[in-house]
Structure formats: structure tokens, C-alpha cells
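Continuing the batch. This is chain 6 of the set; chains 1 through 5 are on the previous pages. Same settings as before, nothing changed between runs. Recording input and output for traceability.
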Amino acid sequence: MKTNAPAQKLLADHTGKPKPFFNMPLDYEQGRLGLAFHEAGHAVLALAYGMHVKTSEVIAWEPDGGGWAMTGNTAHQSHNTPPWHFAAMCAAGELAQVNYLMIYGLWTPERAYACTADHDREQAIDVLAQFDYELGRDHVPTDGKSWGMVRGMARRKVGHLWREIRTVAHAMNENTVLTGDEIADLTGLTNASLVEVAS
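Output for chain 6:
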């Protein structure tokens, strides 16, 4: 665990606003592994859907006043990814974290609520809107999908890839950060080539 807080960009959502923090009623090791499952959910579905993953990591630090705080980050490139696959990848983190709680005998309503990742949902909504796909928070838009439908897609994929997610989560918990190529080696999935974007 670092003694200093990470760079502000790692604590911000896709719009640059600070990500919300919830009190996770778990001890440090349980919370860290849960967050590793969250990031592994994003990373494994990203690879499964043909995205390039740069890194996926758990970031933990000791805030002023003691205790611990943590967040995670999965850096990826989603060039030519079907929009609904991108949305399902966004939903996968929270679902994998809640699944971890259930499988490891740690689930409570409070802990499940603390896994809420509205910033992942909002990123999916904003990115899909750029391509004229409508993703509704709590309704099914005409010719679109609801977040509940996307979570259903992601839940099926998380279940299908649970062995890979579990493998990556434990490796990430041990090593803090994994590259996309390391995740590909651990899972047998392919890390798509990075697409060079002209500036």
C-alpha cells in the first residue's frame, strides 16, 4: 500500500470529476481482492470483446488520518468495438465484485451496495451516445437498451468467463498491476493490437 494518494487522474471518472467513494465494510485484504475482481471483470471482458488492454491495476493508499483507501483502473482501447459490447465491459466490474462477495461468503446488502459503480454506467452512456446509441439508466429507450439489459448481457459473460476473471483477480491482487499481455497469457484470450491514432 502506498503512503501517498495516487495522481488525481486515477481518482477521476471519464469526465474528470472525482469518482465517488463508498465505505466498503471489509478488512483491507478482502477489500483489495474485491477491487481486483472488479478490475479483472473489466479487463477480461475487454479482451473477450476484442479490445486492447494496456494495464489493469488495484491502487491502494493510506489517506491522511490513517486507515486505507483504494480504487482501480483498467486502461484500454476500444477501437471498432461494438457499442453494446463496450457497455457490457463497463458493467462487468461491479458484477464481478458482487459475485466475489457471494462466492467467498462475504455478501451483505451493505457490501453489495458499496460495489456500486455509477461512473462505469455513466461512461457507457456517454460513449454510446457519441455513436448515436441510446442507453437508458432506468428505462428502455426506443431502439436502445436499458442499463438493466446491459447488466444482463454482462452477467452472462462474467459467468462464462469466471475462471479467467478469478485467475486475473488473484494475480492482480498479488502483483498490483498487470499488463494486457500478461492478462492474455493468464487467460488464453487475445490482447488486440494497439491502434495508433493520428494526432
